[in-house]
Amino acid sequence: MNGFYILRSRMMNRKTFVSACLFLSFFTPTLNAAYIYDFHIFNNADYENNPNLAFTAEVFDLGGQAVFEFRNSSTMNSVITEIYFDSEGLLELDHITNYIVDEDNKIGTKFESAESGDVHPSNLPAAHLLDPVFEANVDLSAGACNPSPKWGIGPDEKLQIVFNIEQGHNFSDIINGLNSGTDLRIGLHIQSVDTEGVSVSAVNKVPEPITVCLLSLGGLALLRKRRVGTA
């Protein structure tokens, strides 16, 4: 219990916090945890810090598979039309779970992999502005079916992409890759932004060290809660 009181203390400094995290990590059980990553718009200063634009990727472990659930929680017009992954040797695309509400009126989300259809452009727009330069793996990327502004991920919509974890790796390698900012990155091409119809690019944010520490202690365990809530 002393370790938990240390974590809750408002007087502790960063060094003490990290030490407590390391101590508790030995006693924290492994959970089917979900890790949530926000996105940073990097190629348009007008929308870079706009609070009305909010995109997330929730990543959770299914035992040998990693599920990426993308959500658009924006209160402004915006549609995610392409999803890119910059990674080699960690993931293999298994399937995409679309959420089609009305096929005839094209309501919902409907994506296909770059291998089975067309993903244009083939790399994240403005990829050269990132350091290191973002290089999309076409085998992992996916795009909205035509017409993409209709089938993309609009406000209050979601999409899941399920990957097999490559042999010799585990789910921790996926999270570590995302947290590194280099080994595994996710890029979003977002269209029809605001009333101007602007297109922007975004990349997943790298968590601060304290956030990474908290995630390493078991995350939010959202998958387990979801299962209980839907049973």
In terms of topology, how is this protein built?
Layout: H1 2-8, H2 14-25, E1 34-41, E2 55-61, E3 65-72, E4 79-86, E5 91-97, E6 99-102, E7 107-109, E8 111-113, E9 142-144, H3 148-151, E10 157-165, H4 171-180, E11 185-193, E12 198-204, H5 209-216, H6 222-230
Antiparallel strand pairs: 1-2, 1-12, 2-3, 3-10, 4-9, 4-11, 5-10, 6-7, 8-9, 11-12
Helix pairs in contact: 1-2, 2-5
Describe what is shown at a glance.
This protein is α+β, with helices and mostly antiparallel strands and 231 residues long. The chain has helices spanning 2-8, 14-25, 148-151, 171-180, 209-216, 222-230; strands at residues 34-41, 55-61, 65-72, 79-86, 91-97, 99-102, 107-109, 111-113, 142-144, 157-165, 185-193, 198-204.
How would you characterize the overall build of this protein?
It contains six helices and twelve strands. With about 230 residues, it is of the alpha+beta class. The strands form two sheets. A ten-stranded antiparallel β-sheet has the order 5-10-3-2-1-12-11-4-9-8. β11 (about 185-195) and β12 (about 200-205) form a beta hairpin. It starts with a helix and ends with a helix. Residues about 5-10, about 25-30 and about 215-230 have low confidence and may be disordered.
